[in-house]
TrEMBL record:
Source organism (scientific name): Denticeps clupeoides (denticle herring)
A Pfam family of this chain: Pkinase
Origin: domain of life: Eukaryota
The enzyme's E.C. designation: 2.7.11.24
Region (Disordered): 37-80
Listed name of the protein: Mitogen-activated protein kinase
The gene coding this protein: nlk1
Stretches assigned to the Protein kinase domain: 79-368
Principal localisation: cytoplasm
Gene3D superfamilies linked to this entry: Phosphorylase Kinase, domain 1, Transferase(Phosphotransferase) domain 1
Native organism taxonomy: Eukaryota, Metazoa, Chordata, Craniata, Vertebrata
């Protein structure tokens, strides 16, 4: 998607020049498109819409009656074999071909769902969120694979859009990152985050690796394994086992028992600085050193900024030498660290969460004006072009239509009950939609998939959260 605005250089599309994408991020297999397969099969649902079944990767792409004709010709990247693309604490992600239209999509297995009630609730929450999201800068579920009968129901597979890379890979790569790139990325991060926060959702693990990007610079926030609904009652305790350490807000580092959307904004500030300087802003060995690096930059916080901190953390700060702020070093991050950029950055990197800028206020900062213009001129889905020019949307940064509700969790009192609820949710979610997909357990690639999944699942041990 190229940029067509007058007097402006193309930035969208320059990040990973097209021909490199295949070699860099996918195994190209021009001779046998999809000879390996994760074994997905499309099956007509009983009573559902009828269409011929197809098998993923077998060359039997089944065009849908209403599909876009342009989408029926797969690009070279879409003809590559199925393969694993990522391993996270909460699942394994594979790149697979959807047999219904031949498109490459991401398939995620949510592991250990029914181990206990806490994991059952966590996975159901993530699943419901993925189905709830309707925003171009937030990854959402395109489909959920048809579950087997409830007695055999052990795993959940979700299909999402396949993205080519993530911001961590971009930052550590030798690819040039211009101010235009940084502005359009930051704009989209904040745009997505404003939407999440307006739905009452805290992401709690915003980091470059959880910001997926495409070659046209489109960005989507992903991984909602740690996300939860905002807690309005300040007396209710929330887990401190959140956010990758480098991006963890000072209030969490200081043992605050209650926190809000400001923790995500702190992470965005760290990422903004990382985009400018192309290195991690606060890269410490331990949480205490992490806090020390933060106070080295921001100076010793006043007592009022540590109101929610635990006693030990407050004593640690007060015991140390008094540090003056040294924010002027932010100008040395790079040439892109202009006065405007540093001004916005300093509004994000505020020790006191009550005084930290919100997502929607950050979007009003003049630093983001160009990113907004660029995004809505050549990248968005909400505006469109007519022969006489561009027709812009009325709301550039929409909020969620309604808050995300987690009231269903109250009725989940046992693992078996959870299983029934999730099974029903998936079945109802699919009704009347596309031809359902399911796993073909006989396929060789599926066996590979399961092996890698089992291996990674066994390595994962993570404290469950509240
Ligand atoms: Zn738009």
């Amino acid at each position: 998607m190229a940029f067509h605005g007058p007097g402006r250089q193309a930035v969208c599309g320059n990040l990973f020049p097209g021909s490199e994408i295949g070699q860099k991020y996918f195994c190209v297999n021009p001779s046998g498109a999809g000879s390996a397969s994760a074994g997905l099969t499309a099956t007509p649902a009983p009573g559902g819409p009828s269409a011929p079944a197809g098998t993923i990767g077998g060359g039997a792409a089944v065009p849908q009656p209403h599909s876009n004709p342009a989408s029926e010709v797969p690009s070279p990247a879409e003809m590559e074999p199925d393969r694993p693309i990522g391993y996270g604490a909460f699942g394994v992600v594979w790149s697979v071909t959807d047999p219904r239209d031949g498109r490459k999509v991401a398939l995620k297995k949510m592991p250990n769902v029914f181990q206990n009630l806490v994991s059952c609730k966590r996975v159901f929450r993530e699943l419901r969120m993925l189905c709830f999201f309707k925003h171009d800068n937030v990854l959402s579920a395109l489909d959920i694979l048809q579950p087997p009968q409830i007695d055999c129901f052990e795993e959940i597979y979700v299909i999402t859009e396949l993205m080519q890379s993530d911001l961590h890979k971009v930052i550590v790569s030798p690819q040039p990152l211009t101010t235009d790139h940084i502005k359009v990325f930051l704009y989209q991060i904040l745009r997505g985050l404003k939407y999440l926060h307006s739905a009452g959702i805290l992401h709690r693990d915003i980091k470059p690796g959880n910001l997926l990007v495409n070659s046209n610079c489109l960005l989507k926030i992903c991984d909602f394994g740690l996300a939860r609904v905002e807690e309005p009652d300040p007396s209710r305790h929330m887990t401190q086992e959140v956010v990758t350490q480098y991006y963890r807000a000072p209030e969490v580092l200081m043992g605050s028992r209650h926190y809000g959307p400001a923790i995500d904004m702190w992470s965005v500030g760290c990422i903004f600085a990382e985009l400018l300087g192309r290195r991690i802003l606060f890269q410490a060995q331990s949480p205490i050193q992490q806090l020390d690096l933060i106070t080295d930059l921001l100076g010793t916080p006043p007592l009022s900024a540590m109101a929610s901190a635990c006693e030990g953390a407050r004593a640690h700060i007060l015991r140390g030498p008094h540090k003056p702020p040294s924010l002027s070093v932010l100008y040395m991050l790079s040439e892109g660290a202009t006065h405007e950029a540093v001004h916005l950055l300093c509004r994000m990197l505020v020790f006191d969460p009550a005084k930290r800028i919100s997502g929607s206020d950050a979007l009003s900062h003049p630093y983001l004006d160009e990113g907004r213009l660029r995004y809505h001129t050549c990248m968005c889905q909400c505006c469109y072009s007519v022969p006489s020019g561009r027709v812009y949307t009325r709301d550039f940064e929409p909020s969620a239509e309604r808050p995300f509700s987690h009231s269903y969790e109250q009725s989940m009192l046992s693992v078996w009950q959870g299983k029934e609820l999730i099974h029903r949710f998936i079945t109802e979610h699919q009704q009347g939609k596309r031809v359902p997909l399911c796993i073909n357990p006989q396929s060789a690639a599926f066996k590979t998939f399961i092996r890698s999944t089992a291996w990674h699942s066994s390595k994962v041990s993570r404290k469950e959260e509240r």
